[in-house]
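Training component of the fellowship. As part of building independent skills, the fellow (R.M.) carried out the full modelling exercise for a liganded target. The chosen ligand was 2-phosphoglycolic acid. The inputs are recorded below so that the supervisory panel can assess the work.
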Amino acid sequence: MRKKIVAANWKMNLKLAEGAELVNDLYNTMPALSNNCNVVIAPPYTHLLQTATQLAVIDHVYLGAQNCHHESSGAYTGEISAGMLRSTEVDYVIIGHSERRQYFGEDNELLARKVNQVLSNSMNVIYCCGEPLEIRDAHTQNIYVEQQLKKGLFHLSAEQLIDVVIAYEPIWAIGTGRTATSTQAQDMHAHIRSVIADQYGADVAANISILYGGSCKPSNAAELFACADVDGGLIGGASLKADEFIGIISAMIKS
Ligand code: PGA
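Fellow's submitted model of the complex:
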């Protein structure tokens, strides 16, 4: 059975002490999770060690990172390798977030190499896909997202793909307050699952968690998570406030 997951992407926010306070507040109010209902927290790199220590005492809450380099080591000043992340207890790495694609020129081919680095270091990938507004307006979002999946992930074996979580994040919904409707989310999630089924078979597709991201908040999470193919969320802005993030986690648990 596929997992339900709510993942926090803090992006470039919160100083070290603020991050500690947020995780502490989450610890004090976290509802009971389970093997099949997990939370991931992806703080900035500088917070990983501290957050790892804090999360060690919270069941079913895992440490995530927001990116990694596509090589395993070497002369890449300022970069962080997947192996380094694993050595700080990271379990999930977000790969291909639209902000990385847009501001740092990361294309699907580069992302495929990052995916390999994460998997070969025994971590899980959260692979982001999603279309910009002009693609949605042209009604070509299905083929656009399909290409992102094929080029970034479909070199993997079925066994490897099991360690991948997909996050569908329409760019026009990220940080804009304009959420996809539950119908738009469900349609795309069902499409993603069918594309995976065509390549890997229905059993593999049924076991992949597909998260929705883009202005997800406590007030819309329940409706989004009620969709048959929506298995949780990747949360930006609302993950920076303990009460809002807990509200979204509670919606996942009830879904
Ligand atoms: P948002 O960000 O929740 O602030 O829209 C989501 C994301 O970028 O992962």
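The panel noted the following from the submitted structure. The mean pLDDT is 97. The pocket of 2-phosphoglycolic acid is lined by residues 9, 169, 174-175, 213-216, 234-238 (CB under 6 Å).
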